[in-house]
Here is the input.
Amino acid sequence: MARLSFIYGLIAFGLSVVACQRPDEAQSASQLTSAEVQERLIEQNRAALEQERGFIKEFMDSTGWAFQPAGSGAFEWRVEQGSGSAIEDKELVALRYRLTGLRGDLYQEGEQEVRVLRDPDAVWGLQYALQRARHGDSVVLVLPAHLGHGLAGAGEVPPMSPLVYYLRVL
Here is the structure.
C-alpha cells in the first residue's frame, strides 16, 4: 500500500509541478538539455531509493530481529544455522519459502528448486543469499526492489516492491 502511495505521490508531484508553472516556464522545461534531463532522473531515482531504504529500516526495526547487511542493500537474519553442507554455485537447491512485502502482503509461498546463480526464474537477491547458506538454514531475507522484481514487478508482486523471504533451505 505504501508503495502505491509512493508511486501516486510521485505522479501527483510531477503533475503539480507542471500545473504550477507559467506557460513560459513550461516551455523552458520542455527545452531541457539531455544532461539536465538525465540529472533530474538521477535525482528522482536517488529520492526513490532513499525512501525505499527508509521503509526497509522501519520494517527491520519493527521486528526486533538481528538483521545483518548482506550486500547490495539486502539484509538477512539467520534464524537457525543448518548442520548440512555449504551450498555451492550451480547447485540445485530445494527451498520452502514464504514471500511477502514489507507490510506482510503474501505474494507467494510453497516449495521450489533453484539452481544457484543459474536460475532465470529466481530473483538475483535470493540466489546471492543462497551462495552464503547451508542446507538446513532458516533465513529471513529482506531485498530491495532492484534485487527482487525491480521496476516492473512480476505476477502478484507490485512494481518497485521490497521483498521479505522467509526461507528454509532443505
Remarks:
- The chain has two domains: 2-62, 65-169.
